[in-house]
Design brief:
This protein is an alpha+beta fold and about 150 residues long. The protein contains three helices and seven strands; from the N terminus they run E-E-H-H-H-E-E-E-E-E. It has one domain. It is about 20% helix and about 35% strand. Strands 1, 2, 3, 4, 5, 6 and 7 form a seven-stranded antiparallel β-sheet that branches. It is globular, with a radius of gyration of 15 Å. About 30% of the residues are buried.
């Protein structure tokens, strides 16, 4: 077990069991331009963000859901993606609406006890971690529709 601290959110996580779940399950993203871009852009995350994924045992290419909102610049998109993590909050759940904390310039993370779109066979206990990308680079060789 590994401790994970994000502001007031304090959890004990099992990155090996989380990683094993994601490794054992095929994953599909939708074929929209935002998700295709997310898969390509997530291959080159800033080191602080990649470290957070490693600490939690997450594969950045396998979110439970990814959302793409608007283009802050023609060559970027504001996106978020959330993931499920095997573990539990230490000393209780995070405060309601655990505010995102900046990991590095333009990337923040938040956590919550309730898991959206949780697969029935995901190991329990678990919680959800959401990453916010203020300016995810637009890396597709096609116009940014956002």
């Amino acid at each position: 077990m590994t401790d994970f601290v994000l502001g007031a959110c304090r959890a004990r996580v099992n990155p090996e069991r989380t990683r094993a779940y994601y490794d054992a399950h095929p994953w599909e993203m939708c074929d929209c331009a935002g998700c295709r871009n997310f898969v390509k852009a997530a291959a080159n995350l800033p080191e602080a963000v990649a470290d957070a994924f490693r600490t939690l045992g997450l594969d950045p290419l396998k979110p439970a859901e990814a959302c793409h909102y608007y283009a802050p610049t023609p060559d970027s998109v504001f996106s978020s993606a959330w993931y499920h993590v095997h573990g539990e909050f230490v000393g209780g759940e995070p405060e309601p609406g655990c505010l995102p904390r900046e990991l590095t310039d333009g990337v923040s993370v938040s956590c919550k006890a309730d898991c959206d779109l949780l697969p029935d066979d995901f190991p329990r206990p678990c919680f959800q971690v959401e990453f916010w990308f203020d300016r995810l680079p637009w890396v597709l060789d096609e116009p940014n529709p956002y």
